Amino acid sequence: MARPSSYHHGNLKEVLLEAARKLIEEHGAFGFSLTEAARLAGVSPAAPYRHFKDRDALLAEVARNGFERFAACLDTAWNNGVPTPLSAFENLGKAYLAFAREEPASYTVMFETGLAPGTEGETLPAAERAFEVLQQAAEALCRSLPEDERPPLKLVSLHLWTMAHGVATLFSKGGRAARKVPMTPEEVLESGLLIYLKGLGILPDAKEDGSG
Amino acid sequence: MARPSSYHHGNLKEVLLEAARKLIEEHGAFGFSLTEAARLAGVSPAAPYRHFKDRDALLAEVARNGFERFAACLDTAWNNGVPTPLSAFENLGKAYLAFAREEPASYTVMFETGLAPGTEGETLPAAERAFEVLQQAAEALCRSLPEDERPPLKLVSLHLWTMAHGVATLFSKGGRAARKVPMTPEEVLESGLLIYLKGLGILPDAKEDGSG
DNA sequence: CTTTGATGTAAAAGCCCTTTACATGAGTCA
DNA sequence: TGACTCATGTAAAGGGCTTTTACATCAAAG
């Protein structure tokens, strides 16, 4: 498919997205320039316009594309709640943070406001799918509660999302929190979620349990 | 002080910061340009360089400046935990979200990674002060626990920060979460924090209490 | 073999960032 | 009053980026 030395690139769109992620990772979202991405891909500054309407469209595609893989990651990690909802939930949290760490550029463009003003107005289908995985997890976790004690699922999943996103962003890169505490993001998220689940009555209190 | 029609502006630095916040608010962090900020202030494109080393330095100052007001807001809201730690804590959460809503540009530049790569490496004193308010709150809230049940304070304050920051960013602007649930950010944060505090054993379980 | 459409290039207009040399004016000191 | 000085602003220019337009290349289809 890819013909590096021919006049036609053959795989430019993908290569440009890759270059964009690399540049954003290295120089921040501001440091990204279409021209430099084109340079990395070995084409002229005008070439990207055959594949993207403009620079914002490329960023939007990085986001869309990122949400696809993100949703897939979360879905795989959750694995329909097997073997147990709790262990699957732990995997889910780790997968969330792993994605944010391994694809910081994607995560940044996906979630950080103020990057592409027009773009973030629409909610992407893949973003919905990612959120639905969290909602499935919330549902499975809450199923052990008597019905009259169950808080709204959307609310619980928002709480989960909130904690995961908060840890992911506060700890990302040289993030503000990274040097404040000698713990990994995973430990912070997991401990926070455990406390939250205790508060919901899904996990027993430590003093009652004694094993944890 | 300000002489709008004279050769020397008299108040340019402040006006530029204000203009930057306004532009970022309207067009996103990408939409901000030093030249346009200068235009808004009624000066030439080179004038800002008498007050800021470069464009990144202006953004860094927006962040620094924002953290100062942010820390002051949080400190005022917390009010040393009076009348009660719990009510003060509620105020603290509201103040956090209020700041993010009222100064979205500041909040964006303060917390979003990938904006000024070099800048976020250093931790600002004002940012430390803001975090210390959260830590004070965590300490006051945990004081009612027996010592052997108290989790590390830094960890608890990180959890609190995580939830507040998560809600603030997920709900900001046309944020991804805003249309997902018919609740205000304040309601999402407060309910999440209540559940978390229950999990810590600071608040009684709903079924034991019964009063909501 | 020619045509055609997708894909890439070159060139140019316009904006932005930043530097450099120069202009202005307020305050100081004689 | 008058000259000096320093902070602050301007004008002009170089270089980069974005985007458009006209043209070039090449693969595939007829």
TrEMBL record, chains A, B:
Residues 10-70 form the HTH tetR-type domain. Gene3D superfamilies: Tetracycline Repressor, domain 2 (1.10.357.10). It comes from Methyloceanibacter superfactus. Residues 33-52 bind DNA. It holds the Pfam family TetR_C_33. This is TetR family transcriptional regulator. InterPro entries: Homeodomain-like_sf, HTH-type_TetR-like_transc_reg, HTH_TetR, MT1864/Rv1816-like_C, Tet_transcr_reg_TetR-rel_C_sf. One of its GO terms (molecular function) is transcription cis-regulatory region binding. The keyword Ribosomal protein does not apply. Keywords: DNA-binding, Transcription, Transcription regulation.
